[in-house]
Here is the input.
Amino acid sequence: MKQGLDPALGAILPLVGVVVGAALGMFGTWSLRRRDEAREVRTATRLLDIDLKYIHDAVSMGVDGTDESDWEWFERLDTQAVWREQRAILARHLPDEEWALPRRVYEASRHMSDNVYLPVRQDIAASVRADIEAALSSFRERSPGIPTQGTF
Here is the structure.
């Protein structure tokens, strides 16, 4: 009658332990990385949320033919600063369709700030507003902390 562990099983069990430990370690590293990426995107979308609302207001002012003195705040506002800081994060993590929305809005914003006193065409304004609303909707799905009421 034998007692103890079979030598073949004794050789295999440590290898199984190493494989299971490595798999758990890789899963832990992967999940921490995913969490950090989600936090990065959440932070970026929250920062862009404010800028997008300002741009929406500026587009509305341009369409409504607001007096030139009311544009002073937009001239001083650098909506491109946050975009420059956060666009690499969004480019890495957002799907192409979601990435295109804020990119188009910020391109229009740059054009508007270069031509701040020119009226904004209705069709362009409608397109920019739609892109802003779609971007904010997408951002809210990724970042539950972004308010959903009182947006504009």
About this structure: The radius of gyration is 26 Å. The CA atoms of residues 41 and 90 lie 6 Å apart. Helices lie at 7-64, 72-76, 79-93, 96-114, 122-142. The chain has a mean pLDDT of 77.
